[in-house]
Please model this.
Amino acid sequence: MAFQQEEYRIQEEAVAWLKAERGYDERFSDLYQHGGARLDSVGLIGERVHMIEVKTQLRPNEVGHAEDKLAGTLTSIEDRSGDGAASVLRNVWDRKQVPLFVVLVGRSTPSGVDALKQMVQRRAAHDQVDVALWVWTGERVKTIWSSRPRKAPRVEATPLPSATPKRPNARQPTPSIDHYMSVAERVGCSEILVAALDAASSHGFKPRTTAKGITLYDGGKARLGLYPGESRAGELVVTVLASEVERAGELPLRDLGQGHFEWQRRGASKPELVVAVLAALSRA
Model:
């Protein structure tokens, strides 16, 4: 989980700098990957759309992941499918300028830069996007490499929607349980999530989805949070109140450190562990 925390830090700090120094108008953010979107941030600098994918470092395998994100997003824009990032892009891209796909990293390697250049060259005939590699130095965003600018396609321009202080993703519908099941399948922790929901039902807990995950309620009180978007293969991230841990006794979960406010983050690596936790909470 350490690399994810570093990604979150890079995104949070770099985007704050971009807003202050370059006037970045962020229209979509999937910070902490709660929405399971392909892109981490979408916004405008001037009238140009920027699509940002964040990595801790750029090596050849990370370039492959970034290419998958780019290809999937472009397909979603055209066929009007996909996640919140694609939906926002359809609204803000006026087609007057070629969008910029940015790989934002904490550090890069020569082999990673070479792989990125090869990716751009290979996709040049198919993608109407420019590509740039940015590094967050800890103090500012620095451009390491950018592709040769393309000419915008000759299409009738459509006006950009007026800027709004509200975050577009806040207006998106709350994700469904099916959505989080898909996220869990993609991450590799779906078996644990299914066991958690089944156990919750048997103990009378009521699931409610949020923009970040699934919260299990008992008598109107939040007892356990399930976060597939923050999880990894073979481990589901859950949150539990510190007071619940005291009442239920030590829980058989890996300690992932302090969460928000009084919530503690734990990792459930087996279905039977999260089942045991729910049984303990139901008795507490």
User: Anything to note?
Assistant: The longest helix spans residues 2-22. The two ends are 30 Å apart (CA to CA).
